[in-house]
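Work Package 4 report. The design task specified in the project plan requires that, given a folded chain encoded as C-alpha cells, an amino acid be chosen for each position. We show below one input record used in the internal validation round.
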C-alpha cells in the first residue's frame, strides 16, 4: 500500500478531521500513479461502520471527483457534525471569509448561465442555520440549482418513476428551501437546462411535482411565473422555460380568468414568445362570461405595431371577431385601436383585420379617420374591400412611375474641388502622427505626398518627429502584425515608412525582405508574419518607392496623389508630374502609375498636345484618353500591367474577365464571353454538400498566388486584409475601376456561398455598403452581385443599409435594371434555394412602401424571378412573391406576359401557391 493510503487509514482510525482539506491538497501534487492507486482504494473502501467524522474525511478526500459541473452531496448527516467538523467543512469550501467568497463567486461568473458554485445546497443551508455564513439569495439559489455546461438537461414536465420514488427523501421541502427555489423566477440562472444535484431531477419537473404534491400552491406559482414573464433581464430561453412550466401546469379557465389582467398586460411585452402565449391563453378564455373585453380591446395597441408577430396577430384577430359579434358596442373603439395593424406587411394578417372592419354595418367617420394614415400600406384587396368605408379619394393614392436609367458621365474636375496639400513643416509633423490613427484615406494620401517634400526634417528637426516614431514602432512591431478594425494595413504601412525613414541605419524594402528571410531561416515561427509582410511590400510598392527615393538627390512627386475631391486627378496636373519624371529620365513606379490611371478624371479638359506616343507610357495614356483608339497587343513592350490597367478602364465590362485570364496565364486581350457567375452545389469527398457561389475560378487556389508576381489588380484575388479601417483606402485607390474590388470583397466575405458571415466579415461588408451609400456610382456585374448578396444576406443591419444604397442608385438613376434583376432572379430561382424567401420579401416590402419608380423596380424584379423560376423547385413561401406581384399589377394595371402565364398555369397544381395564382388570373388577357 502506498504512503497516501496509509496516511488516510491513520486519519480514519483516529478520526483526525482537522487539517484533512490541507492534507489532501498536498497529496494532489504526488505522481499520477500514486494518486490513481489512492483513488481506487477509496472507491473500494467499506463505509458501513463509518462515523459522521469518518464520512466527512472520506468526502473531503474525494475532492478530485468534484467539479463545477459535477457537484456531489456529502454522504454524511450534516446535523450530526460537531464544531470541529464544521470548521473543517468551512475550510474545505473556502468559506472562512463568506463575504469575500460570495464576491469571488459572483466576480468569476463569465455569463449568467454559468452561475455555479462547487458548494452543495444542503451544506450552505446547514452552515447558515448554524450562523456560520450569511444569507445571500443569489448564492443560495446558485447552490440549489445546478447547471452542467457540458451536458445540458432537456426540459421535462414530469419526474421519472425512479426519481419520484426517491424525491420525497431527496429534495428538501422546508419553507426556507422552497423560498430559495422561487428565485429561479427572479434571476437569470440558465434555468432551462438546470437540475437539482442529479440531472434527472430537472428543475421544471421538480417545480411541477412540488405543485402536484401541494408543497407550492397553484396561485403562488402562477404569480411567480407572471413575475418571470415581466422580468426584462431574463433571457429568451428562460422565458421559454417559464412559458412551458405555465403550459404544463394546465391552469384552468377559471384560474386564468382570475389573472386575466396580467395575461392581457403581456400583450405589451417586448418578447413575441410571451405575447403569442398570452394570446393563445386569452383565446381559450374568450367564451367565459367574466372575460374583460374592454380591457382586451384597449390593449390592442400593444400588438398592432409589433414585428414578426404574424401568428399572434391572427390569433388576436380571431378572438376579436368573437368579441365584436357578441357586443357591437365594442366595434368602433376596437376598430380605431386596430387601425395601425395595416402597417403589417403580411397579407393574411391584413385580410383577417379586414374582416373585423367589415363588421361595421355603416360607414364610420371616426374609424375612417383612424384608418387614413395607414392607407398607403394597405394591400389592394383590403383597400378594395374597405372602399366604402375609406372613400374613393383615399383608395386612389398609390403612385407609379417607369424607371429610366440615365447615361452616367463623371463630373469634370473643378477649381472648387481642388485638394489643399500640406504647406508647412508644423502641419506635416502633426500629420505624421495623425495618419497612424486616422481612418480618413485622404490623410494617408496627403502624408505620402508631403513626405516627399519634407523628408529633410529627419535631419533638421528629429525631436519633433519622436512622437510619430514612437507610435509607428508600436504598429510596425516585428513580433506580430495586428491588423484590426481600427488599425488597418494602410496604417501599418505608414508606420513602416516612418520607421524606415527615421531609422539610424538607412535601408530599403529589398533589405527588409532579406532581413525577414534571415529571421525565418533562424526561427521558423516567423514564417507566417514574414509572408504577410512580403505580400504588403509587393502590394504597397508606392511606400517602397518613396523609401528608395530618400537616397536620391531630388525626390520626385507621386503620380497618384489625388488633386481633387473623391480622390480624382486632374489631367493637367498629372501631365506636369509625368514631365518631371521624363526630365529626370526616371521610370515611374508601376503601382503608382496604375493608381494614377485609375484616378484620372478623363472627362476634364486639358491640353491635347500632351497626348503623344513618344514613349510607352505616353502611348498608354494616348490610348486611354482617345475614345477612337483601339488596343493593339503589339504595342506592349515593357509595361504589360500598365496596358492591362488602361484596357480595363476603357472596357470596364471586360475587367473581371481580363483579370481571370491573367490568373489562368492566358492572353487577357483576346475576345471571350463576358464574365458571369452561377449558384450551384459543391460536394465533398465525405459526402457533404452545400450551396456554393461559382464565380468562375478555383477559390481554393488563391493561397497559391505568388504575390511578388501579381499585377496591380491581381492583388484583389489574394487580398485578405479587407477590413473596416482599409475600406475607404481600397475604394479610393481604384477610382474609376471598382469591379475587381467588388470581386475582392465577395471572395473574402461570400466566398463559400450564402451562410452567415463571420462577425469580422459582417463589419467589413457593412463598411463597404456604407461607403458606397455615401459615394453612389453606377455598378457593373460584380458590383451588382455584391449588392444582391448583401441585400439578401443573414445580417439584418447589412440588409437595411444595403437597401439605403440601392435606393440611392435608384434616386440617381444609376441602377442598371437588367443587371440587378438578373442577379436577384439567379439567386431566388436557384433550385438550391440559397436564401430564405422572407429576406427577399423584406426588401420587396420596402420597395412597395415607397412606390413611384420603386414600384417599377419591384415589378421588373418579380417578373424576372418568375421567368427564371423552376416550377418543380419552388422555394418555401413563394406565395408571398406572387402576392407582391398581384399588388404591383393592381397599381400598374398591365397584363401578365405569356411566358409568365405558362409558369402560373403550372403552379395551379401546387397547393402552397394556387390561391395567389388564382387571384392573378384577372391580369391574364
Amino acid at each position: 500500500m502506498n504512503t497516501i493510503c496509509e496516511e488516510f487509514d491513520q486519519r480514519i482510525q483516529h478520526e483526525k478531521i482537522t487539517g484533512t482539506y490541507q492534507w489532501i491538497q498536498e497529496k494532489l501534487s504526488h505522481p499520477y500513479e500514486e494518486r490513481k492507486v489512492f483513488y481506487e482504494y477509496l472507491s473500494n473502501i467499506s463505509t458501513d461502520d463509518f462515523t459522521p467524522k469518518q464520512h466527512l474525511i472520506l468526502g473531503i478526500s474525494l475532492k478530485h471527483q468534484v467539479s463545477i459541473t459535477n457537484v456531489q452531496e456529502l454522504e454524511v448527516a450534516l446535523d450530526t457534525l460537531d464544531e470541529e467538523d464544521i470548521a473543517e467543512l468551512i475550510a474545505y469550501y473556502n468559506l472562512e471569509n463568506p463575504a469575500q467568497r460570495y464576491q469571488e463567486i459572483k466576480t468569476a461568473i463569465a455569463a449568467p448561465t454559468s452561475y455555479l458554485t462547487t458548494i452543495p445546497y444542503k451544506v450552505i443551508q446547514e452552515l447558515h442555520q448554524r450562523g456560520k455564513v450569511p444569507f445571500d439569495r443569489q448564492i443560495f439559489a446558485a447552490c440549489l440549482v445546478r447547471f452542467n455546461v457540458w451536458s445540458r438537461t432537456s426540459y421535462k414536465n414530469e419526474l421519472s418513476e425512479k426519481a419520484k420514488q426517491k424525491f420525497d427523501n431527496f429534495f428538501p421541502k422546508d419553507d426556507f428551501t422552497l423560498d430559495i427555489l422561487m428565485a429561479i423566477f427572479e434571476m437569470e440562472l440558465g434555468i432551462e437546462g438546470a437540475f437539482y444535484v442529479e440531472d434527472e431531477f430537472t428543475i421544471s419537473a421538480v417545480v411541477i411535482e412540488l405543485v402536484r404534491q401541494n408543497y407550492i400552491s397553484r396561485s403562488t406559482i402562477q404569480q411567480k411565473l407572471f413575475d418571470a414573464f415581466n422580468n426584462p433581464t431574463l433571457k429568451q430561453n428562460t422565458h421559454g422555460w417559464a412559458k412551458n412550466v405555465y403550459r404544463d401546469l394546465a391552469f384552468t379557465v377559471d384560474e386564468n380568468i382570475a389573472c386575466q389582467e396580467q395575461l392581457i398586460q403581456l400583450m405589451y411585452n417586448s418578447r413575441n414568445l410571451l405575447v403569442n402565449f398570452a394570446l393563445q391563453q386569452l383565446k381559450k378564455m374568450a367564451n367565459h362570461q367574466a372575460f374583460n373585453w374592454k380591457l382586451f380591446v384597449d390593449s390592442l395597441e400593444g400588438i398592432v405595431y409589433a414585428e414578426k408577430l404574424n401568428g399572434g396577430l391572427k390569433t388576436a384577430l380571431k378572438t376579436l371577431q368573437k368579441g365584436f359579434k357578441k357586443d357591437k358596442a365594442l366595434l368602433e373603439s376596437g376598430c380605431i385601436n386596430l387601425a395601425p395593424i395595416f402597417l403589417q406587411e403580411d397579407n393574411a394578417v391584413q385580410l383577417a383585420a379586414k374582416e373585423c372592419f367589415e363588421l361595421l354595418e355603416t360607414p364610420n367617420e371616426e374609424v375612417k379617420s383612424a384608418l387614413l394614415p395607414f392607407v398607403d400600406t394597405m394591400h389592394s384587396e383590403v383597400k378594395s374591400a374597405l372602399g366604402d368605408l375609406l372613400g374613393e379619394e383615399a383608395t386612389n393614392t398609390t403612385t407609379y412611375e417607369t424607371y429610366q436609367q440615365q447615361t452616367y458621365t463623371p463630373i469634370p474636375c473643378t477649381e472648387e474641388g481642388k485638394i489643399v496639400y500640406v504647406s508647412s513643416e508644423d502641419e506635416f509633423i502633426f500629420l505624421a502622427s495623425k495618419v497612424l490613427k486616422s481612418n480618413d484615406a485622404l490623410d494617408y494620401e496627403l502624408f505620402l505626398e508631403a513626405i516627399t517634400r519634407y523628408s529633410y526634417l529627419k535631419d533638421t528637426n528629429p525631436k519633433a518627429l519622436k512622437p510619430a516614431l514612437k507610435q509607428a514602432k508600436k504598429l510596425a512591431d516585428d513580433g506580430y502584425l495586428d491588423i484590426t478594425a481600427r488599425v488597418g494595413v494602410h496604417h501599418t504601412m505608414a508606420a513602416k515608412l516612418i520607421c524606415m525613414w527615421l531609422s539610424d541605419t538607412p535601408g530599403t524594402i529589398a533589405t527588409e525582405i532579406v532581413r525577414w528571410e534571415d529571421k525565418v531561416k533562424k526561427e521558423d515561427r516567423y514564417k507566417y508574419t514574414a509572408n504577410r509582410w512580403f505580400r504588403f511590400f509587393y502590394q504597397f510598392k508606392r511606400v517602397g518607392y518613396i523609401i528608395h527615393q530618400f537616397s536620391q538627390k531630388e525626390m520626385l512627386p507621386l503620380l497618384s496623389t489625388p488633386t481633387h475631391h473623391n480622390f480624382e486627378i486632374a489631367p493637367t496636373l498629372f501631365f506636369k508630374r509625368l514631365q518631371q519624371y521624363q526630365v529626370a529620365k526616371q521610370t515611374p513606379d508601376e503601382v503608382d502609375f496604375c493608381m494614377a490611371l485609375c484616378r484620372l478624371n478623363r472627362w476634364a479638359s486639358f491640353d491635347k498636345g500632351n497626348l503623344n506616343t513618344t514613349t510607352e507610357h505616353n502611348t498608354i495614356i494616348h490610348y486611354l484618353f482617345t475614345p477612337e483608339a483601339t488596343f493593339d497587343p503589339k504595342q506592349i513592350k515593357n509595361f504589360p500591367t500598365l496596358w492591362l490597367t488602361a484596357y480595363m478602364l476603357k472596357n470596364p465590362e471586360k475587367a473581371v474577365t481580363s483579370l481571370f485570364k491573367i490568373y489562368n496565364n492566358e492572353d487577357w486581350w483576346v475576345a471571350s464571353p463576358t464574365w458571369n457567375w452561377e449558384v450551384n452545389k459543391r460536394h465533398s469527398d465525405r459526402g457533404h454538400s452545400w450551396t456554393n457561389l461559382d464565380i468562375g475560378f478555383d477559390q481554393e487556389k488563391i493561397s497559391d498566388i505568388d504575390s511578388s508576381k501579381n499585377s496591380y489588380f491581381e492583388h484583389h484575388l489574394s487580398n485578405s486584409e479587407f477590413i473596416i479601417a482599409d475600406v475607404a483606402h481600397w475604394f479610393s485607390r481604384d477610382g474609376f475601376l471598382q469591379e475587381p474590388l467588388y470581386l475582392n470583397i465577395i471572395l473574402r466575405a461570400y466566398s463559400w456561398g450564402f451562410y452567415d458571415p463571420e462577425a469580422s466579415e459582417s463589419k467589413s461588408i457593412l463598411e463597404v455598403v456604407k461607403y458606397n451609400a455615401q459615394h453612389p456610382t453606377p455598378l457593373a456585374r460584380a458590383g451588382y452581385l455584391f449588392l444582391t448578396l448583401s441585400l439578401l444576406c443573414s445580417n439584418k443591419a447589412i440588409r437595411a443599409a444595403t437597401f439605403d444604397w440601392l435606393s440611392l442608385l435608384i434616386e440617381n438613376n444609376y441602377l442598371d435594371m437588367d443587371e440587378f434583376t438578373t442577379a436577384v432572379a439567379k439567386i431566388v430561382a436557384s433550385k438550391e434555394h440559397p436564401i430564405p424567401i422572407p429576406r427577399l420579401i423584406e426588401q420587396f416590402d420596402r420597395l412597395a412602401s415607397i412606390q413611384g419608380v420603386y414600384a417599377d423596380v419591384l415589378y421588373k424584379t418579380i417578373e424576372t424571378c418568375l421567368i427564371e423560376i423552376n416550377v418543380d423547385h419552388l422555394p418555401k413561401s413563394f406565395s408571398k412573391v406572387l402576392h407582391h406581384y398581384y399588388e404591383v399589377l393592381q397599381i400598374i394595371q398591365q397584363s401578365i406576359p405569356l411566358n409568365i402565364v405558362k409558369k402560373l398555369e403550372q403552379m395551379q397544381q401546387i397547393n402552397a401557391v394556387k390561391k395567389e395564382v388564382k387571384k392573378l388570373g384577372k391580369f391574364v388577357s
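Residues 713-923 form one domain. Validation will be extended to a larger panel in the next phase.
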